[in-house]
Each structure stands twice: as structure tokens, then as C-alpha cells.
# Entry
Amino acid sequence: MSDSTQIIRRGHGTPVLIVEDIATEAFTLRKVLERADYQVTLATTGQEALRLLAMREFRLVITDIDMPGMDGYEMCLAIKDSLRTRTIPVILLTTLSSPANILQGLKCKADYYLTKPYTPTLLLARVQTLLERPPTPPDADAEPLPVALEGQEHVVTAGRRQMVNLILSTYECAVQQNRELIATQAELNRRNDQLREQQEQLRVANEQLKALATTDGLTGLKNHRTFKERLAEEFERATRYHLPLSLMLLDVDHFKAFNDTHGHPAGDEVLKRVAKHLTESTRSTDFVARYGGEEFAVLLPFTHQQAAMALAERTRAAIEHAKWDLRAVTASFGVATINAETHTGSMLVEFADNALYRSKETGRNRVTHASELAKKP
# Structure
């Protein structure tokens, strides 16, 4: 016996011959049949399969079509033309179920088509159906059948049952493929839904990370780094288009003493309330940030000196007259507005800081504009 043949005796049931030259395909097919207790023999060529059929009894042949040497169609025709084997059902394995394939199947007197990839359930159902029917020669009720295919007429001699079985097999394969496509589409839809959900979660996570990177955790205002970035943007726009821009810095008066006396939690509450006053008293176009410690910064785009000073005074008064739990809270303010001598954003901060220092130096709880200093910007 050739090395290309493997006789498998693990099953104790009906003997089945598999003809398949691809090892992985043969292994899969063999396992499906063995689990159903069929006795399986493997051959890798059509010639080897015919030799086995001449020596042993088989109840069913399952063969691939595309094989080297003798293909599945030729082997099937040889089986059906032999008096010894003509009643053995033959299943053709194929990747296509086109009209040309059906015509070839009719010509070689095959009993059934099985389209790859197939399901074990469909395979075993067809195997059982073919094995349970009475053995009948393929030409028992054969009659000539004219078939037009691709502009050419073919005359095929085939039995009615054979024609019905082959056409039905292609229909069943098409139904199975359609089910698989529907299942695949459903799985794709599910995966797409998962992907969209993951994308949304990633978007939310990115926004949260961005907020953490740009926001002061205590007050909810923008942090110092974000203020520096926004200052550069606003200063560049103001100088390019000759627009007014003011900056207001404020510092909570005697904050260290407050913390030392009442504790850091009480100090944190003061900072949060000051932040709330700032957000409530400014416009949507203004930019409020915690500059550091007890110091805050407010960028005022499109704002001249007079309007900036008015806003600072209103905010100072609101903080001073607010109801505070432990003691009165006040803040000192420094304001600067860009002019011909303000060459950078850092200079604007420096001028506002100098004005703030003057407010603190002259008694606190007051507002000073940089233009009031002896050395004007």
C-alpha cells in the first residue's frame, strides 16, 4: 500500500473513504467523522483511492475536487463507471457551487456537493442521508438532459434523483453560506459597537486626562501652565491686531497667618470661595487661573485700563463684603494693560506683579494699576 494512504480504525462504524491532499483539511474532516464513530480511511490522490476501492468495501466516498493528477471529477466518474463501486455515494468537496460545477457534477454522476468551509452538522446530516438511502446505480433512471451554459449547449445523461440531489446540495450550501454571512455581519456589528464604545471611553478618558493636566485640583480653575499658554496666545493676537489686553493679579491678604491660625482645610475653603467670586464676576471671554498658592490671575482680552480697573475694584469689594465664617477676608490687586513698551507676555505679568506688590506695600485690600507706579511701563 502507498505511503499516501492512512487506514484509521478508531471508529467501529461505517467505513468511509476520504480523498484529500491537504493535510489540514483531511485532519479536520477525519476528526468530524471519527467523533460520529465512522471508520475513516485517508488517501491523498485519486489513483490511490481507486486502488483502495478495488481492495476494500466502503459505504461512502468524500473527495476534494482540486487534486494533483486525477482530480475529483475524474475519480468520481471512474467510481460510477465501475460495476463494483457504482452504487457508492460520492460527495464532492469544492470551494465553488457555480452552474459549471453543477454541470461537471452531473457529468461525473456525483451524489452531493459540499462547499468549503462546511459545518460539521451539515456534513454529518448529508452523510447520514446518503448512507440511509437504498443503493441505486447512477443511471437507473437516467435520461439525456440538454443544458445551456455560457452560450454552449451540453447534453448530460443523469438520473432525476442525482439532478435533484446536486441542485439541492448547492442550494443548501448557499443557505449555509448566507447564514454564515449573516452571523459574520452580526459579529462585525457587535465588534463595531464595541469599538465605538471603546472609542467613546477613550475620548472621555483623554478629556479627563486633559482636564487633570490643565486644571487646578483645588479650585477647578485653570492651572499656572495653562495660564502661560493662554497668555502667549492672547498677547500674540493683541499685538498683531492692535487689540487691548489687560491682566489682573490678586493675592489673598495675610493668607499664611490664616492658615497657621485656622488650619489648611479652612484656608482651602477660602481659596475656593475666592475662585468662585472670580468666575462669577468675569466674562466668558476672560481667562481665570490659579497662579500659585494664594495668588490668582485673570486675563482680560479686549479690555482697556479703565474697564480692567473697574472689574478689579468690583471683585475686591465683593471679596471684602462677603460673609466669611472665621474672619474677614480681603485681597490685594495689581493690574497692567499692554502698551508700546510691553514687548512680551512675561513683561505684562511683571508689570501687574509690581502693581500687586505696591497694593500690598501700601496697606493691602486695594487695587493698583501699573501706570500708577513711579516707573511706568
